[in-house]
Each structure stands twice: as structure tokens, then as C-alpha cells.
Amino acid sequence: MHRAAGRAKRLLGDSAELVVEFIRSRMNNDGGFRGRGEQSDLYYTVFGLEGLVALDAEVEVRRTLEYLQKFGNGGSLDLVHLACLARCRADLSEALVESNINRDTTQHIEKFHSGDGGYGNCAGAKEGTAYGCFLALGAYQDAGVGVADAAGLASCVRSLQKEDGSFANEPGGAVGSVPATAAALMVLHYLQEPIDFSSTDWLLGMFSENGGSAATVKTPVPDLLSTATALHALSTLGVSIDRLRQQCLDFIDSLWSSEGGFYSTWADDTLDCEYTYYGLLAIGRLSKQDENQ
């Protein structure tokens, strides 16, 4: 994802510095990045750091580490924020991070290991979610250790697949969603599991004539999260997105602000680090230099 988002620099040209300035403007004095409010938020701090790293911009490592230190090894955090903590620390210089702290974090992630072998949003859940499985796998990768139950993880993810090839985020979901399908495919890919290409066909079919992808078949408008994650999954799996390139670039451009950030949808009027990162990821994947990496 770093490599893909980093390729956005070529297409952004001089505007890349605007993006850097926007992301830095979201950093608070305590070293964290704010979201849609004024307070620092661990979730948005991930996207702030990821955006700066992708654009090869200088990161205020010590200042951000001071912010992260208050979370310790993450024992009081939920799964989403545990994964965020692991990712933030992975983005910072290894020389400044305690060598075992992310491994300690993965021990806490096991509290969210669900009964079906996946990872759920709540500790002790009976069933996992696509998002939970994706986050847990990412945290294990950040810690440099193998996931505890790879077979169970794959089985949980496969149980979420719908007849049309899409994946629901949760068991019993009526329809699949683009972000859940992208997450599920990435989990299966990194576990070296076979991919059902009816899923990639479904993702391709979710792109509209306007270039963006909506979250579900019932969602009326496209959004940047769905567009970016679909492009990332398709490219990672080696599926050609050539026919989508120009329409998608036009769609992403329609969400661009001269402040240097990206909006989530046409109806959005607030910029943040999260959707700005998704803008970078989508643009990077649409770069002709992407080469499916």
C-alpha cells in the first residue's frame, strides 16, 4: 500500500506538496492527528502518518511517539485501535520503537479471536468480520509474526462470501460490500489462498460510468473509500484496470480540494487525513507505473 500510494506523486506533480501541507495541518501539538473534530485521534493518526510516508515527507517521529506512548501496548483498546497502534508504530523508525511492543500488541488482538477462527469487533465474539480479519492480519504483519490461526482466518473469510462473488462484512449480511470484498480478497491473497475471480468480476462491475465505485449495489452514489480499496485489490491480484483509468481519475479529481485534501463523496464538505490517504492510494493504483505491485 505504501508503494501504491507513493506512485501518486507522479500524477499529482506540484500538487503533492499541497497534500503534504494539508496532512501536516492536521497534526496537533500532542503529536497525534485530528479527524473531523479538533482532538487527536489514533485512527486518523494512522492515515496522517501513512500519507506522509507515501509522499516521502518528513515525519516528526519523536513527537508522534510521545502521543503513541500513552496507549502503552494497547491493552485497553478495541480491535480497530489496536491495529491502528501497530500500524503507527510500524510507520516510525524501528530504532525508536521498543522491539517487542508490537508483539505485545498482537497478544491483545487475540482477545478478539472469534469462535469461527476469524476476528470480531468485540472480544469473545462467536463470529468474525471481514474488516476484523483484515485488521488482525495487518497487525500481525506489522509485528513481524505469523497469524495465530491462518486456516481458521481463511475459513471465516470464505464464510462471508455471497452467491454473486461479493463478501459481506458480517455473517448474515444481505448484500456484499466493496470495502468488505476488497478486505476479504486481500486476506486470502496474503494467506496464499485460492481466489474466486467471480469476486474480482463483481468488483469491476461496481464501477459506474462516472468512474467511482459505490459501496453496495443498493448505494446510489460512489465514494472514495470503495473506489480506492477496489482498485487496490484488483491491482494487487493482477486484474487489469486499464478501462477504468480515465473515468476513475476524473471521479477522484472531482473530490479534490485546493487545500490539498480529498472529500469522501460529492456530498461531503469536510476534509480529513483518512480520505486524503484513500485519494493517494487510488491515484497511485491508477498510475501507469503501478505494474500490479
Characterise this structure.
This protein is mainly alpha-helical and 293 residues long. It has 14 helices and no strands. 48% of the residues are buried.
Pairing-aware structural class of the strands and helices?
A: mainly alpha
Biggest sheet record? none
Gyration radius (Cα, Å) is 18 Å
Beginning-to-end CA distance, first to last residue: 9 Å
Strand content: under 5%
Number of helices: 14
Residue-averaged pLDDT, rounded?
92
Per DSSP E runs of 2 or more residues, the count of β-strands stands at 0
Which H/E pattern describes the elements? HHHHHHHHHHHHHH
Shape: globular
Q: Portion of residues in helices?
A: 40-55%
Which parts are unreliable, with pLDDT below 50 for 5 consecutive residues or more?
Answer: none
Characteristic terms for this protein:
mainly alpha; 293 residues
Strand and helix layout:
Blueprint: H1 2-6, H2 8-12, H3 15-25, H4 42-54, H5 61-69, H6 79-91, H7 101-109, H8 130-143, H9 150-158, H10 178-190, H11 198-205, H12 224-236, H13 245-254, H14 273-286
Helix pairs in contact: 4-6, 4-14, 6-7, 6-8, 7-8, 8-10, 10-12, 12-14, 13-14
